[in-house]
DNA sequence: TTATGATATATCATTAAATGATATAAAGGA
DNA sequence: TCCTTTATATCATTTAATGATATATCATAA
């Protein structure tokens, strides 16, 4: 990740990927952290530093937007642009996994 | 990524992922670049800077090792440790895609 | 009442990763 | 000869991730 903003190039980092996934339902930051940790059984943790800096970046890029929120909470929702990005990113990652499976299968066949 | 080396934490960056995949057959650096670009139809390009710095890092971490090579070419092969890491990384990425599909499916169901 | 832990957001400084640019050199063909 | 491709390598810069820290609110247990 350097020399080119990942959002501009249309790819999502792991953190951004999980955040957009969590925002399939309108949500505030703290809940995103908990949901991601929950989803991954603790494998993936987005700490406050990563979370709020990423949320700001995603907001600036109009991938997500604020949606009110009560008290000190600030709710976020994904934009149409963000939804498209997420779906394309899922496909990109699916292709990566598929490629890996194909390559490993060929390797096993060679070994027989 | 910061504050924690991705290799130490057991995850692979996109570049490292593709490199290890390419090294399912013994190969020298330049061929890795071409194969990755080829595999992804140009979507993913690992330039010389990224390639050789990543190869060095992977070698230092004993994820890959040099394997002779003729002339100026330097061949690399994946180690047992590297193979395990790659396979675990494939599973991690598969889980991410699966989670995303599940979440999106639920979202579509809600919309009906 | 008070203090403690959980909730909630935010920023700074540091470390890691990615990469454009550049350099070098050999090999092969026009 | 000259140009392109092959092949490896490093530097300096930019982007990403995050530990540490700060702040404030709220519920609840002592």
TrEMBL record, chains A, B:
Domain of life, per lineage: Bacteria
SUPFAM superfamilies xrefs: Winged helix' DNA-binding domain (SSF46785)
Domain called Transcription regulator PadR N-terminal: residue spans: 22-88
Cross-referenced InterPro entries: Metal_resp_DNA-bind_regulator, Tscrpt_reg_PadR_N, WH-like_DNA-bd_sf, WH_DNA-bd_sf
The protein's name: PadR family transcriptional regulator
